[in-house]
Please model this.
Amino acid sequence: MRAAATLAAALVAVTVAGCGNSGKQGLSHDQLVKETDAICKRLDKRLAKVEEPENAAGYLEFLEGTHDAVIQSRNDLRALDPSAADAPAYRRLTTTYDQLERTLGELETAAKQEQPYTIERLSSRVDRLVTSSEKIARELGATGCAR
Model:
């Protein structure tokens, strides 16, 4: 009986230890801002490598390069672990990047299908999402993301 109680206590201890770190704080605000700024700077470098389109064929390549750069940055942002205090603003930022990524994908499809009205509508949405992401980043303190 005593061995069973000891085993049960040991299992409880292992289970509690394995259930995650309840004291986990996430990145400090300064660390989060620093990492977010670094991600934004890498995005800027990736985008600088994407050539501006000179014709319709170039436009599709431009969209694909932009889309790939946003996907990489969105994934990098999602890998960060903000503190509870920063989580709501950070969630807004990553959600905006999710929306931007989806919209760029839709824009690529519209360009392939040569749908000018859809391209115009989606391009306007991209502009709004970029403006929104910059505003959220500025509110978070990530000046490397805000133009």
Summary: The chain has one domain: 29-140. The chain is about 75% helix and 0% strand. Residues 29-140 form a domain with the Four Helix Bundle (Hemerythrin (Met), subunit A) fold (CATH 1.20.120).
